Amino acid sequence: MSSLSFRLLLTGIGAVVALNLSVAAEAPTTGPTDPQVLSLDDCLRIAMEKNHRRPASRFAVAMAEAQHRQALAGYWPQVNAKAGWFRLDEPANFVFPASMMYVPSQTVNVPGGTAAVTIPANAFGPGFPPVAVQMPVSFPGQSISTTAQVFPIPEQNVKLLNPQNFTASGNLTWLMYDGGMRKGYREQALGGVQAAQAEVRRTDLELTDSVVRLYYGAVLARQLRQVGDDTLARMEVTLELTESLYKNGAGKVNKSDYLDNLVMVETIRSTVVELAKNEATAEAALAYTIGLPWNATVRPSAEELPHRPFAGNLAELVSTAYEFNPDWAKLEAGLRAYDGAVKTARSGYYPKVALTGELHRWWNSYTAGTSTEVNKVGWTIGAGAEIPIFDGFLTRNRVAEALAKVAKLKEEKFLLREGIGLQLRGQFISLDAASKTYQAANRAMVAARENRDLTARAYQNELVETEKVIRAQLFEALMTAQYLKARYDHVAIESQISVLIGKEISGKVNSKP
User: Fold this and answer.
1) Dist CA 402 CA 192 (whole Å)
2) Enclosing H/E stretch for 137
3) Cα(5)–Cα(141) distance, integer angstroms
4) Distance CA 116, CA 135 (A)
5) Contact 512, 309 (CB under 8 A)
6) Which of 60, 172, 234, 323 matches a 20 to 30 Å C-alpha distance to 497?
7) Neighbours of 279 (CB within 10 A)
8) Which homologous superfamily does the CATH classification assign to the domain defined by 2-76+178-350+388-508?
9) Partners of residue 200 on adjacent β-strands
10) pLDDT tens digit string along 477-503?
11) How is the chain split into domains, by residue range?
């Protein structure tokens, strides 16, 4: 019976040992420093400041917000300026080719008339006339006839500008109407921001959950190590008593009892060493998780595991989860983004109208050809429209794709709704079971402690066998370990429920020692 009892003890404590090993596996096992004694609030504060998962999620939000601002940029006019210098290998020119100009034969009629003629002074000799005289002169009408002629025009090389040029220009484009394209992009970007914010919240919740479970896991490891120390101390006292009764008693205790007790003591001693290792590993894991250096050690200031009986109801938990759960928030953000994608796709059916303008200045030392003052400085303003006529059903299929994505995500929303409810139902059942296990383990621990005390007193008077006193001590350790593990399970399930519903549930529980 003693070997069976010991196996039961190892089975009970082994589950807790495995738990501590799993949560501590993330931490490096290197040289420790002096431990820091911290409360849970201190650990959470340090984790929020130093854990590297949070900055990564924060940068994801910054990226999404930058994308949202990029989408908003489409509502503003786009203004650009350009300046440059270039040199041609030789002056630009324009060659007017040689040609022939044909002038047909024609007759020109000149009607008769009178014209005033001014005769200057002294026109016919000195003193005649002495002053300028204006005289009317009549002329008859006449006709002038010409024959057809062809005039050759030679090739002409016209210089347009000098080789060296400086230019500067500014242009403006303002999209006035886009059929909902910019609004769709804006909603897609805003959905990305909301999804990133939900992911930040999930990171914070998961980090809080990890710190809480590691913190109380370290408390549990310390309490289990203390249970091992106490059990070992009692077993050593029992071993001394067994040796005394074996050598000096009435013969009811023999050497075989002494050897069984000795084997049990040494086995428990090795178990205590393992529990002490788990305690150190759990403390190192806690320090690593909250973002302290690799060689730091954190020792929880809490002496006991809390037990807070749940006072809420499942329907309230599920309702809260639909409001605060990060996965639910991400899905809602995804629906908003896909609705924006539908608007963007549908904008392909509508025309795009934009206002455009440009200013330009051109510096060239040549003043003829195209390098005139009129051409060197100027501006343009206009409006343009792009009207879709036929795109091979591209827009229609883009809209169909976006609507299919929305429908798919709505179905996933239904699945997530049921999934969250099912997960919370499972955790709620586990929480209730942990609470009942805690109560049963508490009663069993009290009974085992009382039984160990009575059996130890009877053994001193050789009223019970050695096997029974050893079994009583082992079962006390087993019941204590189960009791402590039940309290830890209750805390861990509460923490996991907080992750599912997206907020702390401490307001929904009543704190009791």
Assistant:
1) 16
2) strand 133-139
3) 152
4) 6
5) yes
6) 60
7) 24
8) Outer membrane efflux proteins (OEP) (1.20.1600.10)
9) none
10) 999 999 999 999 999 998 888 888 887
11) 2-76+178-350+388-508, 78-98+165-177+351-387, 99-153
